[in-house]
Design brief:
- This protein is α/β, with parallel strands linked by helices and 474 residues long.
- The protein folds into 2 domains: 2-302, 3-Layer(aba) Sandwich (Rossmann fold), CATH 3.40.50; 310-468, START domain (Alpha-D-Glucose-1,6-Bisphosphate, Chain A, domain 4, 2-Layer Sandwich).
- The protein is 36% helix and 22% strand.
- It has a 7-stranded parallel sheet with strand order 3-2-1-4-5-6-11, with helices on both faces.
- The longest helix has 33 residues, at 436-468.
- It starts with a strand and ends in a 6-residue tail after the last helix.
């Protein structure tokens, strides 16, 4: 079959595509920026269609000769117009996919009181798809897998807080489902006619039990004290502070569990009897094993950038700070050195200053350093590295990071490794495009600190690349 996958760079889409290819399907992916799929193991095996669901003129022909499509697009960031954006995207898709034989959509379980605007919007997307196209809509609760937002929220809350004072609704029942089961449902739906709404879920337990069972797997002792005084809005801010999950994503995650959310799985059992979701504890064990082996395929943060239209450019008003040094080793070793910055390894120099900057960023609603990185050595375009995102990547030669911390302008940090006689030349460039007067004030106020930090960073990268000369790659 020829399959169209939207949301190809997202957490689920990025895992679904290689499994479709393994089953012999032809795959076309719809992405806003084709560079975002480069470097992935499947990027050369799929047809890449660059288009934007909010811009119908970019979609003409995207469904031609397509047998089935996966609609894996929804807004999980709390912008004021997220519901309107969801409506525009799904209607533009339906206009173009009017002759489609099958659409498969992954949405969320809807609480009885429908209190979550994000879950209501996802349900409305599903309703639109079912009304206009032959559709199977899977509705899932928290998805548990290495790198998923729900798993990371549970993981960091439990790891970092030995005693937790929580809202009373942590005793509400939820029904998480492991990512492997989700992928199995999505794949097997191709072999069936449109089924309408299908709830999927695994073991029923409370959110408190999700944390205590995680603690059991990790051998941790945790005390959880529920109190009826913490509002969802305040809880989401706390989650945003303690975990890698940004405040804008924590808000819909928290609001999705303030009331019991259970699946009616009879239909899933009838049509997919061979799929048996793992129990929660086993799902946690598998996720932790993948993390330990640095084998996380996709992460929640990869798909959340809404800034793909911002690109590094050489234009008037772009402030540059360039440093360069000769290194007596290969460009490949220099690249390995700067491509492994961030995450648990840190930034080689002035780590305390990077941490302070991260905390300051979190306090004003930015991501800080909490997002880390998916893999200690490997990078892919569009991935996050602490409060940066990979803007450009040329393996073995160049890395451009775009800042996502809160600053009055746009900032980039670029590294290049060039061949030179007897070794390589490392070129490190900090760039800033200020917004108005206060942007310039910020840059020059920070310049004394940047002068020391970036100078030391350049030398540390060079030194580490020399150490890598005789060290096998991790």
């Amino acid at each position: 079959m020829k399959i169209l996958v939207t949301g190809a760079t997202g957490y689920v889409g990025g895992r679904l595509i290689p499994r479709l290819l393994e089953r012999g399907h032809e795959v076309r992916v719809l992405v806003r920026d084709a560079r975002r799929v480069s470097g992935r193991s499947w990027s050369e095996k799929v047809e890449v269609w660059e288009g934007d669901l909010t811009k119908p003129d970019t979609l003409s022909g995207v469904c031609l000769e397509v047998d089935a499509a996966y609609y894996l697009v929804h807004s999980m960031e709390s912008s004021k117009d997220f519901a309107a954006t969801d409506r525009i995207c799904v209607n533009n898709f339906c206009d173009e996919a009017r002759d489609l034989k099958l659409c498969i959509y992954l949405g969320g379980l809807l609480p009885e009181n429908k209190s979550s605007q994000h879950l209501r919007s996802r349900a409305q997307v599903g309703s639109t798809l079912r009304d206009r196209l032959p559709t199977t809509e899977f509705r899932a609760g928290p998805v548990i897998g290495s790198g998923s937002a729900s798993f990371e929220m549970v993981r960091y809350l439990t790891e970092r807080l030995p005693i937790m004072v929580t809202p009373s609704w942590v005793n509400n029942q939820v029904q998480p489902v492991n990512i492997r089961a989700v992928l199995d449902y999505l794949l097997q739906a191709l072999e069936k006619p449109a089924l309408g709404v299908v709830d999927i879920g695994g073991e029923v337990l409370t959110f408190k039990e999700m944390m205590t069972r995680y603690a059991e797997v990790r051998g941790l002792k945790r005390t959880i004290i529920p109190l009826p005084v913490l509002a969802p809005e305040l809880a989401s801010l706390w989650v945003g502070l303690v975990t890698p999950i940004t405040n804008s994503l924590a808000r819909p995650l928290v609001k999705g569990i303030v009331t019991p959310v259970l699946a009616r799985t009879e239909k899933a059992q009838e049509h997919f009897p061979e799929i048996k979701p793992f129990d929660y504890k086993h799902s946690v064990e598998l996720a932790l094993e993948r993390i330990k082996k640095h084998a996380v395929e996709t992460r929640w943060s990869t798909a959340l950038s809404q800034q793909s239209e911002f690109h590094l450019g050489d234009k008037e008003g772009l402030v540059r700070e360039v440093r360069s040094t000769f290194v007596a080793t290969t460009p490949e070793n220099v690249y390995r050195s700067f491509a492994s910055l961030g995450g648990s390894r840190g930034w080689l120099v002035w780590n305390w200053a990077w941490k302070v900057r991260g905390v300051m960023d979190q306090l004003v609603g930015g991501p800080g350093l909490r997002r880390g990185r998916r893999h200690p050595e490997e990078l892919l375009p569009g991935e996050t590295v602490d409060f940066w995102r990979v803007e450009k990547l040329e393996k073995g030669r160049r890395l451009v990071l775009r800042a996502e911390m809160k600053v009055p302008g746009k900032a980039w940090l670029s590294f290049e490794a060039h061949p030179a006689e007897g070794g390589s030349r490392l070129v490190q460039t900090a760039l800033f495009s200020p917004h108005g007067f206060w942007g310039f004030v910020y840059w020059y106020a920070m310049y004394p600190a940047h002068r020391f930090i970036f100078s030391d960073l350049c030398h540390a990268i060079a030194q580490r690349s020399l150490n890598l000369t005789s060290t096998p790659e991790a």
